[in-house]
Amino acid sequence: MVVYSVGGTTTGGDDGIVPASSVAAGREVFQNQIAHYMSMFVSGNDAKHTSLPENETIVYLIEELIVQQPVDPQKPLSAKLK
User: Fold this and answer.
1) What is the pLDDT of residues 46-55, one digit of tens each?
2) Which of the four pLDDT bands, split at 50, 70 and 90, describes residue 80?
3) Beta strands 2-9 and 36-43: pairing type?
4) Looking at residue 65, what is its pLDDT?
5) Can you name the residues that pair with 41 across neighbouring β-strands?
6) How far apart are CA 69 and CA 54, in angstroms?
7) Which of 1, 11, 47, 73 has its CA 20 to 30 A from that of 33?
């Protein structure tokens, strides 16, 4: 199983509800339980918790990484985000 943990960061360092440290701590929750874990953060005006479902980057990640095709954990994600 592959787990993606995605959070937003605004000027306060979190998305207004979930601290960035909690998003990053997901790695500890899933340690030795899954094949691959990846945490990602988006920033900007639409990085608030309530805006994340409409954030263009988040929508892209869901569509490309989850709906369209599973990610090969060995391939860099940065190539897909351009």
Assistant:
1) 899 999 989 9
2) low
3) parallel
4) 78
5) 7
6) 21
7) 47
Residues 6 or more apart whose CB falls under 8 angstroms from that of 9 comprise 15, 20, 41, 42, 43, 47
Q: How far apart are CA 59 and CA 74, in angstroms?
A: 22
Residue corresponding to tokens 């945490």: 39
Supply the DSSP string of the chain, one letter for each residue. Answer: -EEEEEEEE-TTSB-SSSBHHHHHHHHHHHTTTSSEEEEEEEESGGGSGGGGGG-HHHHHHIIIIIII----TTS-GGGTT-
Could you report the per-residue pLDDT of 7-58, keeping only the tens digit for each? 998 877 788 898 888 888 888 888 888 888 888 899 888 899 999 989 998 8
Cβ–Cβ under 8 Å, residues 5 and 26: yes
Token pair of 44 as six digits: 């900007």
Tokens at residue 78, please?
């940065």
